[in-house]
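If your schedule permits, I should be very grateful for your opinion on a structural question. I have a record of one protein: its chain in single-letter code and its fold written as C-alpha cells. Would you kindly read the sequence against the C-alpha cells and tell me how you understand this chain to fold? Thank you for your consideration; the sequence and its C-alpha cells are set out here.


***
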Amino acid sequence: MRDETGTTDGHAGYTGGPRPEPLRFFGTSWVHHDDGYPARRIGVAIGSLAAAVASCLVLRLAYEGVQLADTGTFVSVLVIAMFAICSALAFRTTWDSFAKRPDPERQASLRGLLAIGFVGSLLAYFFRSLTEAPGEKLHRAEYDAAVQEHERRTTRRTGNPSKKKRKR
C-alpha cells in the first residue's frame, strides 16, 4: 500500500492519503469497479481458462511422447502423478495467496513445484475471477485499513486541550 500524500494517481478521489495497489490486468479499477472492470474480469476468466486448456493439450502431447518412448508403465504413472499432485498444490497455493500475503521464503522454495503445476495456478485464477478480481479481497481489506488509519491520523481535535477538564 502506497501512502503518498498531496499528489494524484490519475483517478479522481486519490488526492492525499493512501493509494490503492494495482492488480495485474486490473490496475486500480478494482476500487470503484470502473474503467471496464466487468469486461476485464470476463477477459481474465476466459483467458485463464483458455490457457489452462491449451496447457492440458501440451501436457497430453508430452505424455504421448513418453508413451512413444516406450519407457514403461511406471514412468507413465509417475509423470501423471507428478503433474496431478503439483497442479493440486499449485492450485491451493495460488488460491491461498488471494486471501493472504504469501511468505516470500516459502514461495521461493515452491517455485519449481508451482512451475510444474502451472495448470492448477491457471485454474485457481479462472475460478477466482468468476467472483472478483484475483486478489481483490486482500487488497481491498488492506486499502480500507490504510484509509481508516489515514483518516484517524488526520482528524483534528476540537477545542483547546489546555482548557480540558481533568479527571481527578
Q: What stands out?
A: The two ends are 43 Å apart (CA to CA).
